[in-house]
Design goal:
This protein is of the alpha+beta class. 27% of the residues lie in helices and 36% in strands. It contains ten helices and 20 strands. α3 (95-105) crosses α4 and α5 (139-151) packs parallel to α6. The chain is elongated, with a radius of gyration of 25 Å.
Length: 361
């Protein structure tokens, strides 16, 4: 049984739907990142799951009990959750007392408060700041204290709303390390809203994509970034190569797709498909050579290099194959092949490196 289960959640503000029909289950020990652009509904969903808002439609179960409209049940459930806002409230007191305040409000014993506050401060690497006035902390330090304050009550679910928004890279890295340590060391579920897709991949075991108030897809980072289920998700997660085509032959999950000036053999692992499709190919899965005889891959496209861009140890290739195709090679491979603008190359990729989705027409 999931620790928390939301079914068909919708939320309207002044007659405008900001969230529609979201169903999601959160297991104990889960690490779920909700990704999506600003205004997509991530924060609203977080506040609904944390029982700070009441849904316009749908229901929420916590530990098997329906708490959607049960005032006492919601209060009891909320005592087993913690929520860190994008801009945490800062109390005018020292860091130790700021972290301890939740326990004091719950009338915990002094020895228990001391132990739990010290443990939380150590986890977020803020033990040396215990006597500092919380108002004097930097943005990253403030966020770490807020996480410590959320952890001292020993919640079963920790919600984080854009935990590194507006932080500099160094502070972001430190906060991400804290979140990673919390997920690894604490037996609790973590649900995080973020617009940073890399952050979601690094920290979460599952990712949910929210676009326009709808939960479009939920799955492992590999599922989301390598096998998006729809055109909208593929566009959002930045699939560089989306080749439009038409299915002309299908045998089980193996498709032959006409892309206009050739055919590609591709795989499809789901049934909701029409003849109008996109073939998705990640740039790093394409191999480049100077002739067709140098590869055994089933799929081959020929084109002319139009641009080369250095990206650290890699070179990004833009190829004109009658349509634009993007690829990545190492600097050493680019040098060995003598790659340069206007040179003709062969781009090859395996059938297993492709993914097919329905094309909106």
């Amino acid at each position: 049984m999931p620790l928390l289960e939301a079914v068909g959640l919708s939320k309207d503000y002044e007659g405008v739907a900001v969230l529609r029909g979201v169903t999601v289950a959160i297991e104990r020990g889960d690490a779920l990142a909700l990704i999506g652009p600003t205004g997509s509904g991530k924060s609203t969903l977080i506040r609904l799951l944390d029982l700070l808002l009441t849904p316009t439609a749908g229901r929420i179960k916590f530990d098997g009990n329906d708490v959607t409209h049960d005032g006492k049940g919601r209060l009891e459930a909320r005592r087993r959750m913690s929520y860190v806002q994008q801009k945490p409230v800062i109390f005018s007191m020292n860091v130790y007392d700021s972290v301890a305040c939740g326990l004091k409000w719950r009338h915990e014993k002094r020895d228990s408060i001391k132990r739990r506050v010290e443990d939380a401060l150590e986890l977020v690497e803020m033990s040396n700041y215990r006597a500092r006035n919380a108002k004097t902390l930097s943005g990253g330090e403030t966020q770490r204290v807020a996480i410590a304050r959320a952890l001292v009550t020993e919640p079963e679910i920790l919600y984080l709303d854009e935990p590194t928004a507006n932080l500099d890279p160094v502070s972001t890295s430190k906060v991400e390390q804290v979140i990673h340590d919390v997920i690894r060391e604490r037996e609790l579920a973590v649900v995080m809203a973020t617009h940073d897709m890399v952050q979601g991949q690094q920290l979460a075991t599952r990712i949910g994509v929210i676009l326009g108030g709808e939960l479009m897809q939920i799955g492992s980072p590999g599922d989301i970034f390598n096998s998006p289920r729809s055109q909208k998700v593929a566009e959002f997660v930045g699939i560089d190569n989306m080749l439009p085509g038409r299915v002309v032959e299908q045998e089980d999950s193996l498709l032959t797709v006409d892309i206009g000036n050739g055919h590609i053999q591709a795989v499809c692992d789901h049934s909701e498909l029409s003849s109008e499709v996109y073939v998705l190919i990640r740039p790093e899965d394409i191999t480049f050579s100077l002739s067709r005889s140098m590869t055994s891959a089933r799929n081959m496209l020929q084109g002319t290099i139009t641009r080369l861009t250095a990206m650290g140890p890699l070179i990004r290739l833009e190829i004109d194959c009658g349509f634009p195709l993007l690829g990545l090679v190492t600097r050493s491979s680019a040098s060995e092949l003598g790659l340069e603008v206007s040179k003709e190359v062969c781009a090859s990729f395996k059938v297993t490196a492709t993914h097919v989705i329905k094309r909106l027409v």
